[in-house]
From TrEMBL:
GO biological process: cellular response to nitric oxide
Statement: the UniProt record of this protein carries the keyword Acetylation: no
Reactions accelerated catalytically: 3',3'-c-di-GMP + H2O = 5'-phosphoguanylyl(3'->5')guanosine + H(+)
Lineage: Bacteria, Pseudomonadati, Pseudomonadota, Gammaproteobacteria, Oceanospirillales
InterPro entries in alphabetical order: Biofilm_reg_signaling, DAHL, EAL_dom, EAL_sf, GGDEF_dom, Nucleotide_cyclase, PAC, PAS
Pfam families the UniProt entry points to: DAHL (PF19443), EAL (PF00563), GGDEF (PF00990), PAS_9 (PF13426)
Native source species: Nitrincola iocasae
Name by which UniProt lists this protein: cyclic-guanylate-specific phosphodiesterase
All copies of domain PAC, residue ranges: 460-514, 584-636
SUPFAM superfamilies the UniProt entry points to: EAL domain-like, Nucleotide cyclase, PYP-like sensor domain (PAS domain)
């Protein structure tokens, strides 16, 4: 039979494998995917046509906005990327020729994109030029220029050629342009500008038509048609193959159904014969009186009788079809065996089985010839139970937790169990045959024993407590119960005494009585909660401290006392300590019943049972409010100055030590400022100590206002203060704080109705630096403070050598700059501003210069930022305005008609420069506001605040002009130019340095000029150094120039001499 089954199964497997392969071949053709690919090709053709149409509209000037074209291009690119992706459904449905056609189309489309960008570029240039040319024609008409009509005709021809290009119109345009250029040889600027614009526009039109023709020759539509045809042929071929695969699959399915039918018929015959043999064997096994089960060599259950199920009734609900499962089920049901069951079974094994219902079976497992197991069970429950009862009675006495003693009627001991031997210290041999009086202590009344024997002789049971003596003489209390034992005739033959040592219990009861007394009378609150945190009992002190009665908190959780001041981490640490160590103690804030919050010292202990499980938590706490208040008062007195309420020297040293550790760990910088009040002794001596103390208090407030909340201001002693600055970026931050402190302490103090000016000297020490401990850091700051006093008071001084040089340089330059302002070391240079075409000087820009007595000429890039940081820009800026306005006014009175341009910064607004001050300066100088231009940087535009705009507008309201200096290098936007009251732009020298008509700078400058004209803004180009730059700027339409080509900045006297010798040259 097996020889016939194997070829049949091989044939069946082969047919199924062929059917699976054919099934997947037919699934390879998917009409949905085919339709989707056709849709994608159609969408690609539509997008290609739309992109061609959009490009031609841009080229003809019909469409000016490129957003639509850009959106279609983005959609086209997304579709192409999706189709070209190797994993995409579209790409997987193509053959290699179709993929190559798709990639070829992609390359052609990329070429069209490049041509489109060129077309857009030249179309934009042509559109801007055509929009600008009517303005130039209007200027010619306003000038009543003789060639104005020729220019108008030429402009019309350009428009027509742009719309309807042909070679004849191009030739006519070239001739007309050349004739117009000949007419510009007479130095006619307006006509020259028009001719240049016309010639440039004509070149752009030629380039546009060239790129458009090249664009039209890139034939992507035919490439798409070829791709569609290639894909359709490939799809038709695959569809024909799929039809053949489908027919073959149908034939194989029919063959498979026939084979399966024959196989089912043969299996049914074999099953019927097997069932008949099994029925005969089952009838024979069921007739046995023992339980029987047969397992094959694999441990599978092959045969059993009904008595087997009667012995193991739980098997009727469980599937125990193999030997191991049977053992597992029996074990889970509580069946025990007298010896381990051997696996595998080599010889016959006999043992006892005990089931949960009390049955006992004699088990016999015998190996069969083929390696299986024949298992037989015989019920021996009644015999086994009789043996067990006898053993249990003896074991009960031997293992009883109570001591047991049996005597005869005369008290002679005949039996004791191990527990009684353990209790008394006597061995069994020492007590057997002795009278029970051996255990008497002699401290029990004889009346008790008389009463006991009377009860026993009467056949009653006596119970009581006796004080007895152990073998070692130790006294102990036992609880005794004595009963008579009778014979079958009812006569008393023996007495049995059951004893329990209660010495420890009586001692515990006494201790509990004492604990209960302590619990109720303790001044500390006590609370007992179970292992789940439910309050079980509290004492009177708890009620007094919390305000809650015992009934109110019983059954509640201790969280009802929570104040909410402690976070989850606090309680997690508490429970961690309780779980790991069994106790916790610490300070905690809780809430009373009336809502008031109070501090308490709390100790919690966990109580465990014999198995180590927590049963209760005992909490003991006391109200420490009074102690906390006393500690806080003492601590404040110890760490704070009584007069100023600032931290004192002790607290300062503690915080400084912590700050150094933190700075070293987190790589931070800290600074210590040692401050000494100048002239404090004078105030103390003249006004008295009362006002001296008032001055110290006010100085402390001012110092506190100069720093952050995280910093420390401390009174070091007398008139000395120390400030600790945390986490600063550099020594410059510390220097700024020192400057602020000096300014605040230099402001007048009102004492005794008088304004008192004192000042301060400040020493600074940095960490990390020359010191790494608190004492050294303070000492270094103190030494630096004294150095500041020695150099003139009311200043600050760094100590750290590595920072000292830099700090000294800045400080010295600041001091020198102050002196320069006082001693007239500052000087104003003037640079001419000229008209581009005529070369005539129309104004001057005032530029600040510093002649240092030892350093020579100091660059403005060095001292202007310092002046802004230190606030010196305020008085310096005011001096520049006053001096320059007076100078220009004087020149105007001498006949030099010049306007003045002065730079200002936003920092001057904070330092008091406003419209009233500027009005006063102009009035004193007798200079008209219209003759003053204030230059601001693009950076000020970024402020864009209402305050800044209002500040600048206040100057414009006076009639002053505003200009943006170095335009183009910052972040200006048209919105800013519209929002701010600007009327002049100064083109930065970076755009002028390499300026020629052929480079990109010319396009940028031209764009700036066009923008300025549209906003009606005046233009000045800075940095002009060559005649070529002047000519290019003139051709682009820039009105005013400034630079070394005309003159360098020079003092006022030199400017007058230069003006006398200057001969302007006119451009035409």
């Amino acid at each position: 039979m097996q020889s016939m089954a194997r070829p049949f199964l091989l044939l069946l497997t082969l047919i199924i494998a062929i059917m699976i392969a054919l099934f997947f071949q037919t699934r390879a053709i998917n009409s949905v995917d085919h339709t989707q690919r056709l849709d994608q090709l159609l969408q690609l053709r539509e997008l290609d046509a739309v992109l061609d149409e959009q490009t031609l509209l841009i080229a003809t000037g019909v469409q000016h906005q490129y957003d639509t074209q850009v959106n279609f291009r983005r959609e086209h690119d997304q579709l192409m990327n999706q189709m070209l992706t190797t994993e995409s459904a579209f790409n997987q449905g193509l053959n290699q020729p179709s993929i190559e056609l798709l990639e070829s189309y992609y390359q052609l489309q990329q070429r069209k994109y490049a041509l489109t960008e060129e077309i857009k570029h030249y179309a934009a240039l042509i559109r801007n030029a055509l929009l600008y040319m009517p303005t130039l024609v209007e200027e010619l008409r306003d000038q009543n220029h003789p060639q104005r009509d020729d220019a108008a005709r030429l402009m019309s021809q350009l428009f027509r050629y742009h719309l309807f290009p042909d070679q004849k119109r191009l030739t006519e345009l070239r001739q007309a342009t050349e004739q117009l250029h000949l007419a510009t040889l007479d130095n006619q600027p307006a006509l020259m500008a028009f001719a240049n614009q016309a010639n440039s526009n004509l070149r752009h039109l030629e380039s546009l038509h060239q790129f458009r023709d090249e664009f039209n020759h890139v034939d992507t539509s035919s490439q798409l048609r070829t791709l569609e045809k290639s894909y359709q042929n490939h799809y038709n071929q695959r569809s024909r193959h799929a039809e053949v695969f489908t027919l073959t699959l149908l034939l194989l399915t029919c063959l498979l159904m026939l084979l399966l039918g024959e196989m089912f018929r043969r299996l049914q015959q074999l099953n019927n014969r097997s069932e008949q043999a099994r029925t005969r064997l089952q009838d024979a096994v069921n007739s046995l009186s023992e339980a029987f089960a047969l397992f094959d060599k694999h441990g599978r259950l092959v045969l059993y009788n009904q008595r087997w199920l009667a012995f193991y009734p739980w098997l009727q609900q469980r599937n125990a079809e193999d030997w191991s499962t049977l053992q597992s089920i029996n074990k889970s049901q509580g069946v025990t065996t007298s010896s381990p069951i051997a696996v595998p079974l080599d010889t016959t094994q006999n043992y006892l089985e005990h089931t949960p219902d009390g049955s006992w079976y004699q088990a016999s497992n015998n190996p069969t010839a083929e390696g299986g197991i024949a298992s037989v069970r015989t019920n021996i429950t009644e015999t086994q139970q009789a043996h067990l009862k006898l053993r249990q009675l003896g074991r009960a006495l031997e293992q009883s937790p109570s001591a047991v003693m049996i005597t005869d009627t005369q008290g002679i001991i005949e039996y004791i169990n191990p527990k009684l031997s353990e209790m008394t210290g006597y061995t069994s041999d020492e007590l057997l045959g002795q009278n029970n009086n051996i255990l008497k202590s002699g401290k029990v009344s004889a009346d008790i024993f008389t009463e006991m024997w009377q009860q026993l002789r009467d056949g009653n049971t006596w119970s009581g407590q006796l004080l007895n003596r152990k073998k070692d003489g130790t006294l102990f209390w036992d609880s005794t119960s004595i009963s008579p034992l009778r014979t079958d005739e009812g006569e008393i033959s023996h007495f049995i005494a059951v004893k329990e040592d209660i010495t420890e219990r009586l001692r515990t009861e006494e201790q509990l009585r004492m604990v209960a007394a302590v619990f109720e009378t303790s001044n500390e609150a006590i609370m007992v909660a179970d292992h789940q945190g439910t309050i079980k009992v509290v004492n009177a002190a708890f009620e007094r401290i919390t305000g809650y009665s015992a009934d109110e908190v019983s059954g509640q959780n201790p969280s009802l006392l929570s104040s909410g001041r402690h976070d989850r981490v606090f309680y997690d640490d508490m429970w961690s300590s309780l779980n790991s160590e069994g106790c916790w103690s610490g300070e905690i804030w809780n809430r009373r019943k009336d809502g008031s919050v109070y501090p308490e010292w709390l100790s919690i202990s966990a109580l465990h049972d014999d198995e180590g499980q927590i049963t209760e938590f005992v909490s003991v706490f006391s109200d420490i409010t009074s102690r906390k208040e006393a500690e806080a008062h003492i601590r404040h007195q110890a760490y704070y100055d009584a007069l100023t309420q600032l931290p004192n020297r002790s607290l300062l040293l503690d915080r400084l030590e912590v700050a150094i550790i933190t700075a070293e760990r987190d790589q931070q910088t800290i600074s210590v400022l040692f401050i000494d009040l100048d002239r404090f002794k004078y105030v103390n001596d003249t006004l008295g100590h009362e006002y001296g103390d008032e001055l110290l208090v006010e100085a402390a407030k001012r110092l506190t206002s100069c720093v952050r909340e995280s910093d420390t201001v401390a009174r070091f002693g007398g008139d000395e203060f120390v400030i600790l600055l945390h986490n600063i970026h550099s020594d410059r931050d510390a220097a700024l704080v020192a400057e602020k402190i000096i300014r605040r302490l230099s402001d007048p103090f009102t004492l005794a109705g008088r304004d008192i000016i004192i000042g301060a000297s400040v020493g600074l020490a940095m960490y990390p630096g020359e010191s790494d401990d608190p004492d050294t850091l303070l000492r270094n700051a103190d030494l630096a403070m004294y150095r500041a006093k020695q150099t003139g008071r009311n200043r600050f001084q760094f100590f750290t050598s590595s920072l000292q040089e830099h700090a000294n340089t800045l400080m010295e330059m600041e001091q020198d700059l102050r002196l320069a302002l006082e001693h007239e070391q500052l000087e104003i240079y003037y640079q001419p501003l000229v008209r581009t075409q005529s070369g005539r000087v129309t104004g001057v820009e005032a530029l600040l210069r510093w002649h240092h007595p030892t350093l020579g000429m100091v660059s403005p890039e060095q001292f202007i930022p310092l002046a802004e940081d230190t606030g010196l820009i305020g008085p310096i800026g005011q001096w520049v305005l006053e001096t320059a306005c007076q100078q220009v006014s004087q020149w105007q009175q001498q006949g030099l008609k010049l306007y003045l341009s002065v730079n200002i910064s936003g920092r001057q607004r904070d330092l008091g420069m406003d419209a009233p001050l500027l009005r006063r300066i102009l009035m004193q100088a007798k200079l008209s506001a219209e003759q003053l231009v204030l230059e601001i940087t693009e950076g000020m535009l970024l402020d864009n605040s209402d305050e800044t705009i209002a500040w600048l507008q206040s100057f414009c309201d006076l009639g002053v002009h505003l200009a943006i200096d170095d335009f183009g290098t910052g972040y200006s936007a048209l919105s800013y130019l519209k929002r701010f009251p600007i009327d002049t732009l100064k083109i930065d020298r970076e755009f002028v340095r390499d300026l020629t008509l052929a480079n990109e700078d010319a396009l940028l400058v031209e764009a700036i000029i066009s923008m300025a004209r549209s906003l009606k803004l005046r233009l000045i180009a800075e940095g002009v150094e060559t005649a070529e730059q002047r000519a290019v700027l003139f051709s682009l339409g820039c009105e005013f120039l400034q630079g070394y080509y005309f003159a360098r900045p020079m003092p006022a006297e030199a400017l007058v001499a230069w003006m006398a010798d200057y001969r302007p040259t006119r451009l035409s």
